[in-house]
Write a structure and sequence with these properties.
The complex is a heterodimer of chains A (318) and B (55). With 318 residues, chain A is mainly alpha-helical. In chain A, 68% of the residues lie in helices and 0% in strands. Chain A has 15 helices and no strands. In chain A, helix 2 packs antiparallel against helix 11 and helix 8 packs antiparallel against helix 9. Chain A starts with 14 loop residues before the first helix and ends in a 13-residue tail after the last helix. By secondary structure, chain B is of the alpha+beta class. Chain B is built from two helices and three strands; from the N terminus they run E-E-H-H-E. The chains are: A mainly alpha (318), B alpha+beta (55). Chains A and B meet through helix 11 and helix 14 of A and helix 2 of B.
Chain lengths: 318, 55
């Protein structure tokens, strides 16, 4: 039971916290708030009428993945908030309050875009454009491509919540590093980065969808804070206990298949230079490692750059 | 103390030093756009800055 006569324990701000990098991210997030109401989708709706079925299918393959993804990362953030509370990191909680708001807003952006531009909203309507992950195959059989957001995040989040309930600080820290490595470093920080660029390059190449492109740029600014919050939090915990570095590599290794090739929705838009996105993925992986002050896995880099590792998409069973 | 940023794109050894983070961010972003037809976010640049001796 809490000691209610410990008056100082009721106050969480410290000078060190206010001068620290996470509190500065909170301040920046508050300065950079934007709303979906600022967007006029009428130009994109007109553009939608001018593209052919293959272009529509390719673009929807990516945007519907973002709509689902933004809802997933909104839904799955609670364990990180709970862990920050358990670790008595009030600056992390403050920043995560902006993080959660922004992920919900990103989902709202994609909801409005699909409703106002494409004319679809209900889950069944949007699901009909979903590109099936189970039909993405590595012909060599070496790698399995999984669904990180809908498999790994709930699992690592559940394990982190178990650690919080157990109350052991080191267990909570290990759970936090695994969860953040998966959420911020792997999914947001490496896997998804080519997808942003694919959409922006598509809009530029077609000379269309200015609102979608602007939305992606605004979302990216938010994601830059989210990703570097996670890698900074991991850096702090790894500096406290260097054995945690191995946990980051274990997470990346478990979902290696998703990184070494491009998956179905990243190959859906016709006419893009796909090699560029593999190269940039290496830069993002190296930078996430640099941010966490850990050593990159060179075999993973070699595999990302290996042109012989190329997934086949749209494979039908039977 | 100045700040330094080095590029980790494949086969790129470009680096830049500037008096502070505010100055270096647009220099890095221009390099990534011109040399790699890509983007680098402000927070990601700031997260990997190293201290460098003043010129």
């Amino acid at each position: 039971m809490a000691d209610i006569t410990d008056f100082a324990s009721k106050f969480h701000f410290t000078q060190e916290m206010i001068e620290g990098p996470i509190y500065r991210k909170y301040e920046k997030a508050m300065r950079k708030i934007w709303t979906v109401d600022e967007f006029d989708f009428s130009g994109d709706a007109a553009d939608w009428q001018t593209i052919d079925e293959q272009q529509r299918s390719g673009l929807l393959g990516v945007t519907s993945r973002f709509l689902a993804g933004e809802q997933a990362v909104t839904d799955e953030l609670i364990p990180m908030l709970a862990a920050s509370h358990a670790l008595r990191r009030f600056d992390w909680i403050m920043f995560l309050s902006t993080f959660l708001l922004e992920e919900a807003k990103h989902a709202e952006f994609f909801m409005h875009w699909h409703k106002q531009v494409v004319g679809i909203l209900e889950p069944e309507e949007i699901a009909s454009h979903w590109l099936d992950r189970t039909q993405t195959i590595d012909p060599s059989g070496r790698f399995v491509v999984r669904d990180v957001l809908h498999e790994a995040l709930p699992r690592y989040g559940g394990e982190l919540m178990e650690a919080i309930r157990g109350g052991d600080e080191a267990d909570i820290e290990r759970g936090f590093v695994r969860f953040s490595a998966c959420y911020n470093a792997f999914a947001e920080g490496v896997l998804t980065m080519p997808s942003y660029e694919i959409v922006i390059d598509t809009c530029d190449g077609w000379g269309k969808f200015e609102a979608l492109k602007r939305g992606f740029r605004m979302i990216l600014m938010d994601e830059g804070r989210h990703i570097t919050f996670g890698t900074e939090a991991c850096r702090i915990l790894i500096a406290k206990d260097p054995s945690y570095e191995a946990l980051v590599h274990e997470v990346f290794d478990e979902y290696r298949g998703n990184l070494v090739g491009l998956v179905e929705y990243q190959k859906a838009v016709p006419g893009l230079d796909l090699g560029k996105y593999q190269t940039m993925k290496v830069r993002h992986y190296r930078n996430r490692c640099r941010e966490m002050r850990i050593t990159p896995d060179e075999t993973l880099i070699e595999q990302i750059l290996d042109p012989t590792i190329d997934f086949v998409v749209g494979v039908e069973a039977g | 103390m100045a700040v330094r940023w080095s590029c980790v794109e494949v086969d790129c050894d470009w680096a830049v030093t500037a008096p502070d983070a505010e100055t270096i961010v647009p220099l890095v972003q221009a390099h990534i756009t011109e040399a790699h037809d890509s983007f680098e976010l402000e927070d990601m640049i700031e997260a990997v800055l190293e201290e460098a001796p003043d010129a």
